[in-house]
Amino acid sequence: LSLEVKNATVGVVDEDRSATSRAILRALRPPQFRPPVLIDQRNIEPTLDGGELTFVLHVPRDFEQDLEGGVPASLQLDVDATAISQAALGALYIEEIVAREIGAPGSEASPSVRTRFNPNHESSWHVSLVELMFVVTLLSMVLPAASLLREREHGTVEHLLAMPLRPLELMLAKVWPNSIIVTVGAVLSLYAIVYGLFGAPPRGSVLAFVGGTLLFQFTTAGLGILLATVARTVAHVALLSILIATPMLLLSGAWTPIESLPDGIRGLTVLSPLRYYAEFLFGVVLRGAPSALLWKQLLALVLLGAAFFLAGSLRFRARFAAG
Question: Considering the entire predicted model, what is its pTM?
Answer without folding.
Answer: 0.85
